[in-house]
């Protein structure tokens, strides 16, 4: 008994069919063949199965479009934050190129997936919509369309410089007898990070390592000073 006939029979029933109905329609179908055929169809995402409280299974055919969409979403889910190149999606799903592009646009419009350009290869890479792409792929918060966003970098450095300067002035007002505020009171990387998060300066996540990069630029430009206490850097402007 061919799986095509089984699939066509199931597809003809919009609400699905039970195991009993399948065996009634195909009396020559053995249990072994049934298990092998349905397993293959399920693996190929051409079939879905539900089970009621009595343990009765109902089989329902997936449309070709739904099947392809499921293949794409499963592939992206497996890739996690690394994403999958367009060419790899095509090779791994065997979906015709023009139809694949149509499906990808549809999934993007439905906010199920999103595309980014890989920093190193300039290839379009797809990830699930709720996944933040790996920084190896995108280049991190400083990059927009593979180019360093200098406006963002400069604006953030100005914000950090002003924050550090304001903290120094605030501490100095409370300690008027000190020419230089007590070092341990000066802001650290963590203080700078918390400030950016609390004030919602950015619409994307930024790491302490990325803030360190900005603070180092300010330090080497001579705009801030750095003091270390027990391994922690404190900043002064």
What does this structure look like?
By secondary structure, this protein is an alpha+beta fold. It has three domains: 1-61, Winged helix-like DNA-binding domain superfamily/Winged helix DNA-binding domain (Arc Repressor Mutant, subunit A, Orthogonal Bundle), CATH 1.10.10.10; 64-138, Orthogonal Bundle (Arc Repressor Mutant, subunit A), CATH 1.10.10; 148-236, Arc Repressor Mutant, subunit A, CATH 1.10.10.10. Helix content is 50%, strand content 16%. The protein contains ten helices and ten strands. The strands form four sheets. A three-stranded antiparallel beta sheet has the order 1-3-2. It has a three-stranded antiparallel beta sheet with strand order 4-6-5. The protein has a two-stranded antiparallel ribbon with strand order 7-8. Strand 9 (225-229) and strand 10 (232-236) form a beta hairpin. Helix 4 (64-79) packs across helix 6 (97-109), helix 8 packs across helix 10 (208-220) and helix 9 packs across helix 10. The longest helix is centred in the last third of the chain and has 25 residues, at 150-174. The protein is elongated. This is POLR3F. Belongs to the eukaryotic RPC34/RPC39 RNA polymerase subunit family.
